[in-house]
Amino acid sequence: MRVHLPVRKAILNRRTYEAPAEGRSDKLRLDFNENTTGCSRAVRRALSKLTCKQLAMYPEYQAPTRRIARYFGVRAEELLLTNGGDDALRVFFDTFVESGSSILICEPTFPMYRYYAEIYGARISVLHYGNEMEFPLDGVIAALRKKPRVLFIANPNNPTGTLVQKEEVRKILKAATHTAVVMDEAYAEFSGFSVVRWINEFYAPVPRESRCSGGYGSSAERWCD
Ligand SMILES: Cc1ncc(COP(=O)(O)O)c(C=O)c1O
Question: Which one of 14, 46, 142, 164 has the largest count of C-beta atoms within 10 Å of its C-beta?
């Protein structure tokens, strides 16, 4: 007997995004924001010190979490290590987004916000960057009055490379009285500013995502906050 496994409607209805991820190693590779000059030698040294026993064990998180929290200037309880930024987003959706929740995004932006929103059956409201790639600040402030569950901002943004300035972020956070604002700071090392230390200043949570691939040339490793 053939068993029919029904696939969730949200998956069937989703716009597919198949990243061309194979056969890229001898190419110029400017498409995925990887560091094309490779990681620091210190990373190679640290990895080469891993023993077979360590590789066979499930990892222990407490000591590295404390160290990385010190580096970012937050408390260890405010930091979650995940398998890269995409996994951090998935954990966020698991925790905060229900089917039918409304999600606000400004496109073009990192496609994984839409990807997860579609998989989780969220309602997606989209604003657009202007012709000069300016961030739609007024539109965002107006849209926040409708109390979406989550607003995603990549800052700096991928793929426009534009930055929402500190004062604009502050305006958005003040207007987001009923909305979780996710600041995706995957590229904060390039912009020179981060809102991670504002975490206690705002009533709404300010989840912030960072990654090691952009700044540290280690896309193959997976850690994030
Ligand atoms: C804005 C943004 N956030 C998050 C990610 C995901 O990063 P990771 O490689 O850590 O999964 C990317 C990757 O391109 C990105 O551009």
Answer: 164
Ligand 1 atom with least separation from CA of 87: 11
What does the alpha-carbon distance between residue 109 and residue 89 come to, in Å, rounded to a whole number?
14
Ligand 1 contacts CB of residue 86 (under 6 A): yes
- The pair of three-digit structure tokens given for residue 75, joined into one six-digit string: 């408390």
- Residue located nearest, by CA, to atom 4 of ligand 1: 85
Ligand 1 pocket test: which of 113, 213, 224 has the largest number of ligand atoms within 8 Å of its C-beta?
Answer: 213
Tokens of 54: 């360590």
CATH architecture, range 80-209:
3-Layer(aba) Sandwich (3.40)
Ligand 1: which atom is nearest the Cα of residue 219? 9
**Per-residue pLDDT tens digits of the chain, which is 225 residues long:** 889 999 999 888 887 777 788 999 888 888 888 888 889 999 999 999 999 999 999 999 999 999 999 998 889 999 999 998 999 999 999 999 999 999 999 999 999 999 999 999 999 999 999 999 999 999 999 999 999 999 999 999 999 999 999 999 999 999 999 999 999 999 998 898 899 888 777 654 556 666 555 555 566 555 555
How many whole angstroms from 1 Cα to the centroid of ligand 1? 43
